[in-house]
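Posting for a labmate who doesn't have an account.
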Amino acid sequence: MTNTGKSEHHDPVDSNHQRILALAANQGLIRPRDLDEWSLPRVALTRLVRQGRLERVGRGLYATPGRPASEHGSMAEVARRHPQAIVCLLSALRVHSLTTQSPFELWVAIPNKSRAPRIDYPPLRVVRFSGVGLTDGVEEHPIDGVVVRVTSVARTVADCFKFRNKIGLDVALEALREAWAARRVTMDDLWRYAVQCRVANVMRPYLESLS
């Protein structure tokens, strides 16, 4: 009796495709270089896109078709390409729902000596952090299946005062008022980051007006 089923037939191409699709489902977004770690062929990405089983969502970024994307999807894309980037300032305020503004650009911070990320969209506004500024007050948020580094509420407020010449003092004051009114920060946290960001003297009168 001949078994005509496919259970004994092992198609290495299809096996690779399944592993790539599983990787995309698990990571949200994948890059060609992500396949190298698993010894999977990069050329398979093109085939899967042609078959409609993957879609190219940006330069060198692929995802499963119809994957749910939030309003912060562009942050996930930047994080997959540039894991060291930190979402900050106006964009961090958006993540924390602490601003009425909807910045067209994505604000990210990178280490002082790093090369600025280059992507097609969205336009990036890049600032530089150094030392403890790259880790202290930086949280990890899952966005569209990707871990995105975002400055915490208190840290973001202090950063807004630090970079007030770039974003406007009115934005920093709004962020402070909103965060305090929503009880998203404590005075201790605000003061700590005010000192760390070297804006204690600038923030002091506004903090005193809250207490």
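Reply:
Got it, the structure tokens are right above this. The chain has ten helices and seven strands.
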